[in-house]
Design brief:
Blueprint: E1 3-6, H1 9-17, H2 27-33, H3 56-68, E2 73-75, E3 84-86, H4 90-101, E4 104-109, E5 113-120, E6 123-135, E7 143-149, E8 155-161, H5 163-168, H6 175-193, E9 196-206, H7 208-222, H8 228-239, E10 244-252, H9 259-268, E11 273-276, H10 281-290, E12 299-303, H11 308-315, H12 319-346, E13 353-357, H13 359-365, H14 371-379, E14 383-386, H15 391-402, E15 409-412, H16 418-423, E16 426-430, H17 437-440, E17 444-446, H18 452-491, H19 502-522, H20 529-534, H21 540-543
Parallel strand pairs: 1-10, 11-14, 12-13, 13-14, 15-16, 16-17
Antiparallel strand pairs: 2-3, 4-5, 5-6, 6-7, 7-8, 8-9, 9-10
Length: about 550
């Protein structure tokens, strides 16, 4: 009943890490459908097999949504093998390519028309859909919607987004919704455990009269000169309701080469890592294991903001009581975490901790009441994993960690990481498929995450040694230079008699200021680059301010 489209690479990787054997699909059949951004095979869906399964109408709407609900621009000839899709994110491109493989080929797009070549049981046809409105995705809405007019004059809203926001807007009177909710939630948990990023898909047919009235309010909000974004979001809430669930998608967010080894090396260098991600908790935990951020030897604490009582209060509309209960529950969880750590310390048990917190719990953890308690728990952990985090929360967490006094470095690759990068002491942007916004806002730019290791352990260590050597040199140079003048003036009764000839004074400054960098430059590197990478504990010297201590 539930249509689910996913990539299988991450599942294969999880099985390999756990020593499990996974059957590989027949290469001939697999290669027939494999494309860039798409690596999936299910004989129940490929070709037109989906039309022979239960609920083919829902399946058709599922694939049609993938082909219509996006901002992707097709480029090149209208041939499936040669067309290229320009998208804001790789995820959007992957979903449009998936729709093409399943027979819903996005051919061309203008400001008002989307043309889709649909392969249906009764034949292939090109259908034009009129774009009426686009409700864009943002970190607050966590969803995107498009309203289109079909060739038979129906007005349909297609919506895709996080499961939490889609489930809140489902039509409770629609018979299939209750049937699909459970199985879709089960599939999303399975995909999340496999490290895949999930989206929920839903649609609804709009009454033309209701749409005309709503569109007037939408245009008025779009033209507003004050609080335009808030007004547009509020008007969007009025139409994104009574949705019919179609299913979910799952996309592999593949790790770059060398990420696990990079994180492991940085941990050995004594660097504590906080990962702030928008993924589900199950997905984030699996990725944490995949990149060696979390290990089986760690004691793991999971903090969640939802429970049965909170969900019941929210369903009944008692939001204040639900918030109060969530805060009290989270405070209890943080107290339990702190008590566990204290007991281990008192018993002389050497243990590493990992803290995992979801977005709803983080919202309360950043409140004035709990932020200090949350910070103290996080500081004592080897790894902190924050899930379902908005860009604003990323910046707030970074600002909170800065209050501890340590130097913070933020690294990201997308526009949603800009606030975090700008808030940290040092910002590093990764230039890649997510765009250049993070790179433009950062202090340093790298091409891949693994380059963070030489940036810190080699160039960072050498930079620290250069700066501390310079500070020590000028401090002691001026200290001894000024001391001799002061002592001489004490014997000269502070008459102003110079102890040094002006020529020798100038020569002294020229030699020690200009020549010193040349001499020191010959002995700049105390270790070879390979040794600095092989022994990450050498980075501890900078953390302990070893070069600035009096010797």
């Amino acid at each position: 009943c539930c249509c689910c489209c996913c990539c299988c690479c991450c599942c294969r990787g999880c099985c390999c890490r756990r020593g499990l054997k996974l059957d590989v699909a027949d290469e001939e059949m697999d290669n027939k459908y494999r494309e860039p951004f798409f690596n999936f095979y299910d004989d129940r869906l490929m070709g037109l097999e989906w039309s022979k399964q239960p609920n083919p109408e829902l399946t058709c709407q599922f694939f049609r949504l993938l082909a219509l609900c996006h901002t992707v621009i097709p480029e090149g000839p209208s041939i499936p093998e040669q067309i290229r899709y320009e998208a804001e994110s790789p995820d959007e491109a992957a979903l449009v390519v998936a729709a093409k493989v399943f027979g819903f080929f996005l051919v061309k797009r203008s400001n008002t028309i989307i043309t889709v070549r649909e392969r249906l049981p009764d034949g292939v046809r090109e259908t034009e859909y009129e774009i009426l409105n686009i409700l864009e995705f943002n970190s607050t809405r966590k969803r995107m919607s498009v309203i289109i007019r079909t060739s038979d004059n129906k007005i349909i809203l297609y919506c895709k987004g996080a499961d939490t926001v889609i489930y809140e807007r489902l039509d409770r009177k629609h018979a299939l919704n209750e049937q699909l909710k459970e199985i879709t939630l089960q599939h999303m948990e399975e995909f999340g455990s496999a490290g895949l990023r999930t989206l929920c898909l839903a649609y609804t047919e709009l009454d033309p009269k209701f749409y005309d009235e709503w569109n007037e309010r939408f245009i008025e909000a779009k033209l507003s000169m004050e609080d335009r974004t808030a007004k547009v979001d509020a008007v969007g809430e009025q139409v994104e309701k009574n949705l019919r669930l179609l299913g979910c998608t799952a996309i592999e967010d593949k790790l770059q080469e060398g990420v696990p080894q990079c994180i492991k090396t940085l941990a050995q260098a004594g660097i504590r890592m906080w990962v702030l991600t928008g993924d589900k908790m199950e997905t984030a935990i699996n990725i944490g294991y995949a990149c060696s951020l979390i290990t089986d030897e760690m004691t793991q604490f999971q903090l969640t903001g939802s429970c049965a009582d909170v969900d019941l209060l929210e369903a009944e509309g008692h939001f204040e009581e639900a918030t109060q209960l969530s805060v009290e529950r989270l405070e209890s969880q943080l107290t339990k975490v702190a008590r566990t750590m204290e007991e281990d310390t008192a018993a002389n048990i050497s243990m590493q901790y990992a803290l995992v917190i979801d977005g709803k719990a983080l919202l309360y953890a950043l409140s004035p009441r709990l932020r200090q308690q949350f910070l103290m728990a996080g500081i004592k952990c080897a790894a902190v994993l924050c899930c379902r985090v908005s860009p604003l929360q990323k910046a707030q967490v970074t600002a909170l960690v800065k209050t501890w006094g340590d130097t913070t470095l933020a690294i990201g690759d997308g526009a949603n990481d800009v606030g975090m990068i700008q808030k940290a002491h040092i910002g590093v942007g990764i230039s890649g498929q997510e765009g250049m916004q993070a790179t433009m806002a950062s202090d340093f730019a790298i091409a891949q995450f693994r380059f963070l290791t030489p940036l810190l352990l080699v160039h960072g260590r050498l930079s620290y040694k250069r700066i501390t050597r310079m500070i020590s040199f000028f401090f002691y140079k001026n200290l001894f230079y000024g001391s001799t003048i002061f002592i001489y003036n004490a014997f000269a009764l502070f008459s102003g008699q110079p102890v040094y000839n002006d020529f020798y004074m100038t020569l002294f400054n020229v030699v020690f200021t200009a020549a010193a960098p040349l001499v020191i430059g010959w002995f700049d590197r105390d270790l070879d680059k390979d040794l600095a990478l092989r022994f990450p504990f050498l980075y501890h010297e900078g953390k302990q301010q070893g070069q600035l201590l009096p010797r």
